Amino acid sequence: MFLINAAYYDKNFQLARGDIEIENGRIRQVGEKLPYTQKDLAVDCQGYTIVPGFVDIHIHGCNGADACDGTRESLDIMAKFLLQHGVTSFCPTTMTTGEEVIQKALLAAKECADKPLEDGARVVGVNMEGPFISVEKKGAQKAEYIVPPDFSLFEKYFERSGGLVRLVDIAPEQPGGYDFAQKASRLCTVSIAHTTAGFDEAKTAFDSGVTHATHLFNAMSGLSHRAPGVVGAVLADSRVCAELICDGIHIHPAVLQTAFQVLGKRAIVISDSMRANGMPEGEPFDLGGQQVTVHDGKAVLADGTIAGSVANLHQEVKNLVSWGIPLGQALEAATLSPAKAIGLEKEIGSIEPGKRADLVVLDKDLEIVGVYH
Fold it and tell me: pTM of the predicted model, to two decimals?
């Protein structure tokens, strides 16, 4: 199959023009005027732009389903919904909840990864947001299930998932946090999250193996000129990449502009979406055992605490462009950068020969007109 006469973003996220050949679900070659015959299927993409499929490494749920439902059915609902919005790969994300719930979620994710849907986004890993976090910065997580960083417990979860866990969150200032980071970082990416740590504690965490920050600015110490906090530590350390919820609610657009300027290729767009995404506003929904309602695109607990989002990566990329972020940079943050964060940059995340043919076709208004995966 050939996609011809296309504008596309190349491996360096520069706009190029040419053809893309797809064979057996992978990109065979990319270039100008690739040779093909009348027997080949050739799709004329004149007037459209082809970009890599979006990679969402932090998503709890959507369309009424949640990763912590612990069922193949729920993950299939998520996968089909996500593909419609240009997401071709995702990491179902667990919350701070009971051991049995987490284990069921891990088993369901493994089943989906082993036998993916033909008409849905692929499960490429699991993101564990908890239970190794801080009670003081729990956000929309239930305090009763929070435990100190426990590597033996995490190892059990990791083995139960068949090695599918690609991200685990910790509050490194908690007892055993730095030791946990050293050990867990040999298995997957370790992220600082829901933490009361200050600047120095965050730096120690990075020296211990933490290389990722979960939803930067949210549920952590902010940036002050006298107390740089976790945010300052992340921005200053080139070893650490950072998730950003780009819905305009969790972070002000002006702050996002600054973050993208400082982080560069370390910026990662996530949805942090919950099951209310894609559902009518005003109805109550469960999030980790707590009731959440959505009004005007903002999800909150009963006490007003901001919860997950109802955004998707496609909309967030369009948001970023409207706020002045170059399209190439916004795309890289929603594709290759998250793929790198979970060690899958050789498989997904950019338009290069040998990689999966996960492609999204956009019109001049950046609306989706087709998805290949």
Answer: 0.96
